[in-house]
Design brief:
184 residues; 6-stranded parallel β-sheet; 6 strands; globular
Length: 184
Amino acid sequence: MSRVGVFGGTFDPVHVGHLAIANDALDELGLDRVYFVPARRSPLKQDGPIASAEDRLAMLIAATLGEPRFRVSPVELEREGPSFTVDTLESLRGEGALFLILGSDAYADFERWREPARIRELATIVLAARPGAPNAPAGVRMLDSPLMDISARELRARAARGRSLRYLVPEAALRYIEEHRLYR
């Protein structure tokens, strides 16, 4: 049976921390592939993404081309309304054993998500440490990934001030951001 990572988020923009976490998950968990799943809209965030769904999808595709085990799934972008992880996992469950990859900061709100018990049935939850976030509770696997304090919100603010995102986002995503004048 295939072992498949599912890594969701707004990816607004995708950054090197996302790729480092996914790469560590591939190796540490013996995954066959990792699906990056950009959200249409997070039900727990007040504001929606800044970049369009099309732009975020294109950045992810460009950023992940160099690793054949990375895939991008538009499943949440194709559904109307907010993106619910349980729906995504249901749609991917035929792919193999699922491993839901989350930042430890995102896990802090996990019990507020739609059907957290069902999510636990569908996937093994794996956390990547984030600065200032609590440690993983019992029954949740912690990745041995680098502790990178990079946030998409800070990257958008940096770009809006005219500062470079070089070395913070993958080179292909940087070219896309610059060509399409995103976050200005």
